[in-house]
Structure formats: structure tokens, C-alpha cells
Design a protein that fits this description.
CATH architecture of the largest domain: 3-Layer(aba) Sandwich
Number of strands: 14
Number of helices: 9
Strand order of the largest sheet: 7-11-12-3-13-14
Order of helices and strands: EEEHHEEEEHHHEEEHEHEHEEH
CATH topology of the largest domain: Rossmann fold
Distance between the termini: 57 Å
CATH class of the largest domain: Alpha Beta
Number of domains: 2
Strand content: 15-25%
Largest sheet: 6 strands, mixed
Radius of gyration: 22 Å
Shape: globular
Helix content: 25-40%
């Protein structure tokens, strides 16, 4: 199953928006607060609920009508409490995910895949209505938050279940996925070579011992807490492929994969994302990074110049807020197709500032 199209009406910061996804890599760019993470969390919540739902048994407690609202609440964590002076319906759970506007209103979500469709509404009082679920049971979905979970794995699951932590449920789900036992036998053929490259960067293989992750290399054992934070991200990716949480036709949502990576590893990350997509994983990333987005754009512009194992379809989405507070969207197959690119705009502004400073130094006249 691949995600094809998403239509949103009055959901979070989106008053009305439509996205047509690539089966390979989907890159979301935009300023902070333009809904990139919310978009990925929505798709992830739908896929995880659908993954756990029992099909054909409307009397089961594990139906989509029960699981989807629970997952949305756990992933978005909207405040269900009433603030002083604010009408209760504006603070009632799922109603907080409806676009802010005057009067009673509702939001609508419509997701189309290559073999099914899902539609539902969210009301301001906090109810999920009109659910139509025609999705087939898909492969696992993995969400990697911007903050790494590799080193925080130890004791996280128990503490989360005891309600001792205030993280959203993407962190819990990731720790559960990390804790799955490695599959026996050789790595899947589609990931052949990728594991070797990851091992080379990490300096060895990843092992889970006594509730903590370690890297075993030729010089000994390194606990996850002593690894550089950027390498912990690579260790997370290694483990998820090692234990089958990421596999052909699964889904990967990654919020700021470039965070805490040096430029060389950012370039490596772009290759890894292409390799995953070429292997059948549908990838969604939200990024603020010039290098990562332009590396992926180069891969999209010159597909025939890429090695066969890195060739994949890529699409870019630019999100920006309008004067009414709603987020508008643009999409294209390369970065140059986007008229609104805040990453490139800021780099252009930096160049202009440098030119002004150079001119003022030469002339002695402040510009």
C-alpha cells in the first residue's frame, strides 16, 4: 500500500490543503509552525491505527472507530481541559485539532491510497464522525522524532506506561520498535550493502543488552550514551532495519533527519533515504536543511545519473502561513518548482548581507 493523496479541510493549521504524494520520498519544507510535523503525525496515526484494527468485526474493541481517535489523542496530545474564560468545546480533546475559527465548525480528512480510501470528520466538541475506512491492512509505519530515542530507550517503555513521562506516543512506539528482536538470518536483499555502510559509520554492529543499546566494534564496546548524537540516529536506523521494523512497503516518517549531523553525514543521509525509497519504503521527511534538501533535489533532477539502487521518485512540498493564519502549500518534483522556499530565501539573504558588508568595508560608507 502506498499513500497517494491527502485532502484536508480545517485540520490544525490547514484551512484547505491538498497533497499528492510520491511513492518514494516526500520532502516537507517550511518555517517553524507551518504544520510539517502535524502532517506527518496525522498520516502516521492513521496508518498505526489501521495496522492494529481488526477488519470485518464491528463489535471488536480494536476497530478503526475506536483506535483512530485514541491514536490521534496520544500522538498530538491536545489539552482536554477547559481554560478559564474559554468555552469548553474549544478545549475538548480532538476538537483542539480543528482549525481555529469563529462559530461551530468541523474538520475533514480524506486519505487516498493505491488500494483504498479513508475519510473522517473532527468536530469542535471533540468527536470523530463519519468514518469511512476502505484501507487494506498495510505494512508497519515508523515515526522518528527530531529528538533521538536511541539513548533514552532504557526504562522508557515502563515509565511511559506508568504515565511518568510527558512525551507523545511516537516516542513510545519507536522504543517498542527498537526493542523488537533482530530477525534471524541475513539481511533482506533490498537492504544489502546499506547495513555495511551503516556499520562502517558506527564502527560496528548494534546490540541491545540489559535494556541498553551498545555498538560492538573492533576496539571494544561503546554504550549508546557515549555515542555522538548524530551517530545515535544512524544506530536507530540500523536497528529498525535489523529487526524488520523497516521493510519493503513499510512507511518511514522522519522529523528533521539532518539534526546533529555534520555535512558529510547529511550527504550520507540523503543517499540512505534514496536507498530506502528504492527498496520500497515510502519516506516522508520534514527538513530545514539546505544541504539535505538540495542533495535530494539533485537526485530528482538527474535520476539516470544515480546508481540503480538509489533511483526513486521524489516530491517536494513547501508550506507557508498566510495572513489569515492558514497554511498554504506548493508542490513540485524538484526544489526549483517551488516559488516559496524559506531555506533558499534565507541563504540568499545571507549572501546579500555579506555583499553589503563587503561593499561598506571597501567604500568606508555603511550601507
Amino acid at each position: 500500500m502506498k499513500l497517494k493523496k491527502l485532502d484536508l479541510e480545517k485540520f490544525c493549521a490547514f484551512k484547505k490543503a491538498s497533497f499528492e504524494f510520491s511513492p518514494g520520498i516526500n520532502v516537507l519544507i517550511g518555517a517553524n509552525g507551518t504544520g510539517k510535523s502535524h502532517l506527518m503525525k496525522l498520516l502516521y496515526s492513521i496508518l498505526k491505527a489501521n495496522e492494529q484494527a481488526e477488519k470485518g468485526n464491528p463489535h471488536s474493541p480494536n476497530t478503526m472507530l475506536t483506535l483512530l481517535p485514541q491514536k490521534l489523542l496520544a500522538v498530538f496530545r491536545p489539552d482536554p481541559l477547559r481554560a478559564e474564560g474559554v468555552a469548553r468545546e474549544e478545549w475538548e480533546g480532538l476538537g483542539r485539532l480543528v482549525f481555529r475559527s469563529r462559530g461551530s465548525t468541523s474538520g475533514r480528512v480524506s486519505l487516498e491510497t493505491d488500494d483504498g480510501r479513508l475519510v473522517f470528520k473532527l468536530t469542535r466538541p471533540g468527536r470523530l464522525r463519519g468514518l469511512e475506512n476502505h484501507l487494506t491492512k498495510g505494512k508497519p509505519a515508523v515515526f522518528l522524532p527530531a529528538r533521538e530515542a536511541f539513548s533514552m530507550y532504557e526504562g522508557f517503555i515502563a515509565s511511559y506506561k506508568n504515565k511518568e513521562l510527558a512525551f507523545d506516543e511516537t516516542y513510545f512506539d519507536l522504543c517498542v520498535a527498537l526493542g523488537a528482536a533482530p530477525e534471524r538470518g541475513p539481511w533482506p536483499a533490498e537492504f544489502s550493502g546499506l547495513n555495511t555502510e551503516l556499520e562502517g559509520e558506527l564502527g560496528g554492529k548494534v546490540h541491545l543488552v540489559g535494556g541498553r543499546f551498545y555498538v560492538y566494534n573492533k576496539d571494544g564496546v561503546i554504550e549508546s550514551h557515549l555515542l555522538a548524537e548524530g551517530l545515535r540516529k544512524l544506530g536507530t536506523l540500523f536497528r529498525l532495519m535489523q529487526n524488520g521494523s523497516l521493510t519493503r512497503n513499510s512507511f518511514l516518517f522522519w522529523d528533521e533527519p539532518e539534526a546533529n549531523l555534520n555535512p558529510r553525514l547529511v550527504t550520507l543521509m540523503s543517499r540512505m533515504l534514496c536507498r530506502l525509497a528504492s527498496s520500497g519504503v515510502q519516506v516522508f521527511v520534514a527538513s530545514h536543511d539546505y544541504l539535505l534538501t538540495h542533495e535530494l533535489s539533485l537526485a530528482a533532477e538527474y535520476p539516470k545519473q544515480q546508481p540503480p539502487e538509489l533511483q526513486c521518485l521524489i516530491r517536494f512540498f513547501a508550506l507557508s502561513r498566510g495572513t489569515d493564519g492558514a497554511v498554504s502549500t506548493q508542490q513540485g518534483d524538484i526544489l526549483a518548482d517551488l516559488k516559496n522556499n524559506p531555506i533558499l530565501d534565507e541563504f540568499s539573504a545571507l549572501y546579500d548581507r555579506r555583499s553589503q558588508l563587503f561593499d561598506s568595508k571597501e567604500t568606508g560608507v555603511p550601507t
